[in-house]
Amino acid sequence: MTVLKVAIVSNQTPKSAAANERLHILLKEAGHTIDQKDPDIVISIGGDGTLLSAFHLYNHKLDHIRFLGVHTGHLGFYTDWRDYELEELVESLCRDEKQRISYPLLDVSIRYHHEKEDRHFLALNESTIKRGNSTMVADIYIKDDLFERFRGDGVSLSTPTGSTAYNKSVGGAVLHPSINALQLSEIASLNNRVYRTLGSPLIVPEKEWVTIKLPETTDYAITVDQISIREEQIDSICYQIAKERIQFASYRHTHFWDRVRDAFIGELE
Ligand code: NAD
Fold this sequence. Notes:
The chain is α+β, with helices and mostly antiparallel strands.
């Protein structure tokens, strides 16, 4: 039998609290240890948002941690287990053979006007840049070449697994996570005889990068998954597929297209 160090990250709903309590008991009975500091496996209990929070809590240990999501609400994209399947889940942990499936992440690097050091983040879903009430103007570079001058509400840069989240709501394509690429999607771009952008989502391969240069020194609202960063003095933000990947414990695996169909189409007659 395999014994694992397990961390649990749960949201605050009564259903999740009950599942958390039950999981603690089952894990201890099976001989696993709860280790919130240096776990082998991180189990999130809640929804996709909870898994995103767990990712950001442990994203400095991605080389040796695997994640696993239990959902207590609607079927999620990162959550394969239901809260009434905890016994089966703990049995899978006991039979663990280090099964894993990994997905690409987005490296976000913020450069400031008057600072030497860039600020780095990793996104599991996406990063967006928007500007308060007025039109955002930004020069978009692919590799180091100016591609277009964007005017509009903002841009979203997403990972393949994030392509079904905010990216999809702004008209981006759904990208299979076996494709190591990032997606740039426009948010309400201005397109007329004076201003012009490509007007469609762009898929950029790994080893290429997208830089968004913000010409005006004003406040921009940047998001990295559910984290909000509101800062002035940003010169540019560079995005590329990260060298790190997120790993999930793959005791069970729902095929990506089945997940997409379940979430967005439902049962067919
Ligand atoms: P949350 O947990 O309430 O998530 C919002 C919704 O997005 C939920 O229905 C969740 O299941 C879904 N979601 C999250 N990741 C997904 C994915 N990879 N594929 C498909 N659906 C996914 O909210 P939160 O904790 O703030 O989560 C932040 C995420 O919510 C962001 O990364 C963003 O992608 C998403 N979001 C989407 C919209 C939109 O579609 N208009 C708006 C804001 C945030």
